[in-house]
């Protein structure tokens, strides 16, 4: 039975072509199911392969495993480096959580390292804007302690400002950004 | 008065399983059988009450040749005209 004949069989008799709502919904239900069935039939399951922790391909790119840094899902990322720079990103096909796929943020996890506006050292706010004032580690801890050690500041004190991705809350009197 | 669109996954390892499923469904007047694509079979069901709809789906899932049932469409309109 093809799609046309299936829809025809779900249609009202030809002497009553004013399809009522029920018949319309029945045809819509069959059309939806047919579309999904056709799509699913063409689906190819993703291959699950074991990926070694480190390997170098024929182009000289060294692939290593890493977690994606952008959200809490925990996607596994394969990072390709060449001459000390990240040149490629892949989802890890052996990972249960993402099965080789990444979202658009994950695919840019390598490019984000080289953004021209990326903070490369802690900065202290000067007036309304962040200044390029490089703050040393001991000074950071000292100033954080001055602000009472609550909330984000406590996190800053306990977890170390050198932790990748750590962000000090913007509501404090003197904001600190750490990347 | 639910109307559902379902996709049945047929156990392709059993011989003649698709024909057996279609034959079983043909005995239920609430079921309209659509097109099949490999091991996938599209159907629509039209029942009078939600309990009957659930029972029909459970009956389909219990068919030995059916390994999975996906619900792709459902309408629960309470004011739906009964055109029977």
Low-confidence stretches of chain B: none
CATH class of the largest domain in chain A: Alpha Beta
Number of helices of chain A: 5
Strand order of the largest sheet of chain A: 1-2-3-4
* CATH topology category name of the largest domain in chain A: Phosphorylase Kinase, domain 1
N- and C-termini, Cα separation of chain B = 12 Å
Rounded Rg of chain B: 13 Å
The CATH architecture category of the largest domain in chain A equals 2-Layer Sandwich
Largest sheet of chain B: 4 strands, antiparallel
Runs of chain A in which pLDDT lies below 50 for 5 or more consecutive residues are 138-179
Model description:
- The complex is a heterodimer of chains A (179) and B (84).
- The longest helix of chain A has 22 residues, at 21-42.
- The N and C termini of chain A lie far apart (61 Å).
- Chain A is built from 5 helices and 7 strands; from the N terminus they run ααββββαββααβ.
- Chain A folds into 3 domains: 3-42, no CATH class; 54-114, Phosphorylase Kinase, domain 1 (2-Layer Sandwich), CATH 3.30.200; 123-177, no CATH class.
- Helix content of chain A is 29%, strand content 20%.
- Chain A is α+β, with helices and mostly antiparallel strands and 179 residues long.
- Chain B has 84 residues and is of the alpha+beta class.
- Chain B has a domain at 12-33 and 40-69.
- Helices cover 27% and strands 38% of the residues of chain B.
- A 4-stranded antiparallel beta sheet of chain B has the order 2-3-1-4, with helices on one face.
- Chain B is elongated, with a radius of gyration of 13 Å.
- At the A-B interface, helix 1 and helix 2 of A face strand 1, strand 2, strand 3 and strand 4 of B.
């Amino acid at each position: 039975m093809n799609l046309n004949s299936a829809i025809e069989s779900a249609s009202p008799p030809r002497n009553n072509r004013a399809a009522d709502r029920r018949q319309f919904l029945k045809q819509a239900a069959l059309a939806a199911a047919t579309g999904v069935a056709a799509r699913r039939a063409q689906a190819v399951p993703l291959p699950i392969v074991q990926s070694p922790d480190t390997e170098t391909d024929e182009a000289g790119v060294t692939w290593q495993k890493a977690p994606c840094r952008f959200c809490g899902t925990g996607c596994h990322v394969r990072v390709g480096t060449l001459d000390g720079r990240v040149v490629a990103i892949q989802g890890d096909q052996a990972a249960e959580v993402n099965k080789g796929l990444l979202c658009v943020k994950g695919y840019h996890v390598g490019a984000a390292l080289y953004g021209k506006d990326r903070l490369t050292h802690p900065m202290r706010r000067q007036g309304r804007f962040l200044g390029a004032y490089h703050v040393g580690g001991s000074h950071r801890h000292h100033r954080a302690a001055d602000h009472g050690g609550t909330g984000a500041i406590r996190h800053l004190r306990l977890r170390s400002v050198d932790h990748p991705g750590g962000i000090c809350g913007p509501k404090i009197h003197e904001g600190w950004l750490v990347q | 008065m639910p109307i559902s669109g379902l996709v049945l996954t047929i156990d392709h390892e059993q011989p003649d399983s698709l024909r057996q499923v279609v034959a079983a469904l043909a005995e239920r007047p609430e079921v309209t059988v659509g097109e099949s694509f490999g091991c996938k079979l599209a159907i629509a069901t039209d029942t009078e009450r939600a309990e009957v709809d659930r029972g029909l789906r459970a009956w389909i899932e219990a068919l030995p040749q059916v390994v999975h049932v996906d619900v792709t469409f459902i309408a629960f309109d309470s004011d739906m005209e009964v055109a029977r």
